[in-house]
């Protein structure tokens, strides 16, 4: 018949609910989704909790530009990564709501760059959280990026992968083809997912409200974001630059 195959509709019938296709594009056989990507956008969502967003925003701006990020990533020497210079185009924080119950308000972190190293975003978020908690100064970013004076990465964990999403990839000369019916199908499926998660969120929040009325502690419990920083929490915090360091790499 000559009619184009409806790729999104075919794929969406067999994909799990969390994975959907919304568009497709014809490309050359030499096209690489990874290496032809000109810009990547990552987003990371987290509750405000006890975090100081102004401090985190200031620290985030220090990441913008081209830097050697070997101290803010997970070494991937086994896969032949020898160049740790990457360019970050922007780092922005957006508070998604402002309510009387501020610690439960969600914040959206958006990081845009040309390319990223292995677990670079999760390492960035961990350090920004430490700054937002007042455990580190904003200039720790500058020091970690100063490879001459700090050539070895201090030991620290990565932030949780759960809130991290590769939100967008930008390509040159790629014209996406959308299908209205497929978009409607995906919207309905995503609305179902949203309903299930939103209802669970309300149930848990209602339980928290009741529990907090029974708690007589004067100082509020602000642990909303703590679960996003895995690892053992020491009684006495040791600053990043005072910790043991990983091996030194020369490239």
UniProtKB/TrEMBL annotation:
SUPFAM superfamilies xrefs: Pseudouridine synthase (SSF55120)
Keyword Nucleotide-binding: no
Reactions it catalyzes: uridine(38/39/40) in tRNA = pseudouridine(38/39/40) in tRNA
Known EC number: 5.4.99.12
Pfam families reported for this sequence: PseudoU_synth_1
Name of the top EC class for this enzyme: isomerase
GO biological process, one term: mRNA pseudouridine synthesis
One GO cellular component term noted in the UniProt record for this chain: cytoplasm
Entry GO MF terms: RNA binding; tRNA pseudouridine(38-40) synthase activity
Keywords of this entry: Isomerase, tRNA processing
Pseudouridine synthase I TruA alpha/beta domain mapped to chain residues: 61-172
The keyword tRNA processing appears for this protein: yes
PANTHER family: PSEUDOURIDYLATE SYNTHASE, TRNA PSEUDOURIDINE(38_39) SYNTHASE
Protein family: Belongs to the tRNA pseudouridine synthase TruA family.
Entry protein name: tRNA pseudouridine synthase
Gene source species: Oedothorax gibbosus
């Amino acid at each position: 018949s000559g009619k184009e195959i409806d790729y999104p509709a075919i794929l969406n019938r067999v994909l799990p609910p969390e994975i959907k296709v919304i568009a497709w594009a014809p490309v050359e056989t030499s096209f690489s989704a990874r290496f032809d990507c000109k810009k990547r956008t990552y987003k990371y969502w987290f509750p405000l909790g006890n975090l100081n967003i102004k401090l985190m925003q200031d620290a985030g701006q220090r990441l913008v530009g081209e830097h050697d990020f070997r101290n803010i990533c997970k070494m991937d020497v086994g896969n032949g990564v020898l160049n740790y210079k990457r360019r970050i185009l922007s780092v922005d924080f957006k508070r998604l709501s402002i309510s009387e119950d501020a610690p439960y308000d969600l914040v959206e972190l958006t990081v845009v760059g040309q390319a990223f190293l292995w677990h670079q975003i999760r390492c960035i978020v961990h350090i920004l959280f430490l700054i937002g908690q007042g455990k580190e100064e904003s200039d720790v970013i500058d020091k970690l990026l100063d490879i001459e004076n700090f050539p070895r990465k201090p030991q620290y964990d990565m932030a949780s992968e759960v809130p991290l999403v590769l939100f967008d990839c930008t390509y040159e000369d790629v014209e996406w083809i959308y299908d209205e019916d497929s978009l409607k199908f995906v919207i309905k499926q995503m609305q179902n997912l949203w309903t299930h998660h939103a209802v669970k969120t309300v149930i848990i929040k209602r339980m928290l409200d009741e529990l907090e009325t029974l708690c007589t502690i004067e100082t509020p419990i602000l642990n909303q974001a703590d679960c996003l920083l895995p690892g053992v929490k020491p009684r006495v915090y040791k600053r990043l630059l005072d910790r043991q360091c990983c091996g030194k790499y020369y490239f």
